[in-house]
Write a structure and sequence with these properties.
Length: about 325
């Protein structure tokens, strides 16, 4: 038998990075979607263990009772200024949207808004986060982490990754948020879409680099080499967070995905399936070059094609499933 110190050393190498949790965002912008009970059953059928719910939809929360599915519960952007205004307002939100389900739903995070920053209400987010966290702590449910989800556009510089920093417009807001996250030991939620990086600059961004299919290093940034755009984007966030006083704060990727239709031959089920399968495999096997041992939980956007999503046609075609619950392309294997 090997000496204990050797066994511990081996374990520290092999076990230093637990497998990531990869969930799926459950959007409700459709008039033909299955009822929430069937949606929860579909998550369980495919072994999807986590869900991001963008707002406290009562029917969805009722369906989640007893399911064991881990949930990110969103605070709608319009509710944030009121919650930030007083502890009483935060208490009312908690009593209405969280308290009735606490004993039966596995809440992992509260996401105080989605992509509010950059925007006029960004300055209210830190206060709203503090008020909700105070209530959770007083109810002995401090294990539920409170954060907010931000897009890549909060970065004034994102390339190369080591130069990542928040724009001057949002730097003060992000420093306040990172201060709250650091104090509570909570991660920053980031929405990371290599798809938009690719379609925004196809002349310089290789498709293989965007969908985790490149062989070897594509971008060299000092001592760090990047073989995929996702890692470069995440590390740009890490760099920005370090510059803003958030060096101890981790991240959760609360959205990532690739549309299967809407923009010609770059949005096919084959390419979308390639991206999402590789995203799933990548999170379960790797950190990023900057933080190779840091586990990153992630969420694929989205569960269904949503026919009422506004904007470009691609917005309606990010789903893993059609509304009839048939896969658009395979990612998760059904549990038999």
């Amino acid at each position: 038998m090997a000496p204990l110190w050797i066994a511990l050393a081996v374990c520290s190498i092999i076990c230093s990075r637990a497998a990531a949790d990869v969930g799926v965002c459950y959007g409700l912008h459709g008039d033909n979607l299955p009822p929430p009970k069937e949606v929860v059953a579909l998550y369980k059928h495919y072994g999807i263990q986590s869900m991001r719910l963008f707002d406290p939809n009562p029917s969805a929360l009722e369906a989640l009772k007893g399911s064991g599915i881990g949930v990110i519960l969103g605070v709608p952007n319009t509710d944030i200024p009121n919650i930030a205004s007083s502890q009483a307002a935060a208490q009312q939100w908690f009593d209405t949207n969280l308290a009735p389900y606490l004993n039966d739903v596995n809440f992992l995070y509260i996401a105080v808004g989605n992509e509010v920053i950059p925007g006029g209400d960004g300055s209210t987010i830190a206060g709203a986060m503090k008020n909700i966290q105070t209530i959770l702590s007083s109810k002995n449910v401090g294990g539920i982490k409170v954060s907010t989800a931000v897009p890549l556009t909060v970065l004034g510089t994102s390339f190369p990754p080591s130069a990542g920093q928040f724009s001057k417009e949002v730097d003060g807001v992000m420093r306040a948020i990172l201060g709250v996250l650091s104090a509570q030991g909570s991660p920053l939620m980031i929405n990371v879409y290599p798809y938009y990086g690719y379609v925004g600059d196809p002349a310089n961004v290789l498709l293989d680099y965007a969908v985790f299919r490149a062989n070897g290093t594509v971008v060299q940034d000092g001592p760090l080499g990047y073989s995929n755009l996702f890692d470069a984007m995440v590390d740009a966030f890490y760099s920005a967070m370090e510059k803003a006083g958030g060096s101890t704060v981790g991240v959760v990727v609360t959205e990532s995905g690739w549309p299967s239709a809407g923009k010609g031959n770059v949005t096919t089920p084959e390419i979308a399936g390639t991206y999402n399968r590789n995203f799933l495999a990548h999170l379960n096997a790797n950190g990023t070059p900057k933080r190779p041992d840091a586990k990153i939980d992630g969420y694929i956007f989205a569960m269904f094609n949503e026919n009422l999503k506004p904007g470009a046609a691609t917005e309606q075609n990010f789903g893993l499933f059609y509304p009839n619950k048939q896969p658009v392309y395979p990612v998760f294997n059904p549990i038999i």
